[in-house]
Amino acid sequence: MNTTVVTDVDTTQPKRSEFERQLLRVQRDLLRMGALVENSCVLARDALCDRNLEAAQRLRDHDKQVDRFYRQIEVDCMHLLTLQTPEDEDLRRIGAFMQMVRDLERIGDYAEDIGEVAIKLFPYPVPSLIGRVQTMLDRCRSMVAMSLLALSNLDAQSGLDIKQKDDAIDADYEDLYAQLANQTNLVGSVEPTVLLVLAIRYLERIADHATNIGKRVAYIVTGERT
Fold first, then answer.
1. Rounded-to-integer distance, Cα 100 and Cα 54, Å
2. What CATH number belongs to 13-222?
């Protein structure tokens, strides 16, 4: 008499492998979105500091692409949560990715806002403080690049180091705001001054979001919030 022995087939490993592949795909999409956002910062610089109106127009197209990434990555993260019961590290990574995608989307929005400021400033003479604003903008773009590198390498220390750069941006903002607010030789419209105040505020917020991304990278790696 033949007997058939039924053994359980372990399907955990294939499911786990598929889960990890999809998790890596989301991380790659985040980096692709980040590259677009970093390029938006370059376009914002060209628009505001070089008075390049074409760059300002391109920012609008960039923002549409960024928004498409934002929606898709959020959907993909939610899907990951339904594939299996995630481990603690998985939950940290998925949760951090969902927050990072919002940070990147906001950076893209602020870059587009700077482009709109550039368009409104175009009819006026070049502001005397535009060189200082350009330095601040370059520092912000550098922070975005640093945050993406930290994400790519999942480097906690590099992520946390971005906070030091944020302190420099805060100092730039306070100094420039004081100079703009206390001008005594204004001639004509106050609109250019108001627009520059808006621009440096947008830059300060870009730096904050880049700092957030760095902190979220550290959280993924260490499990500790800072």
1. 29
2. 1.20.58.220
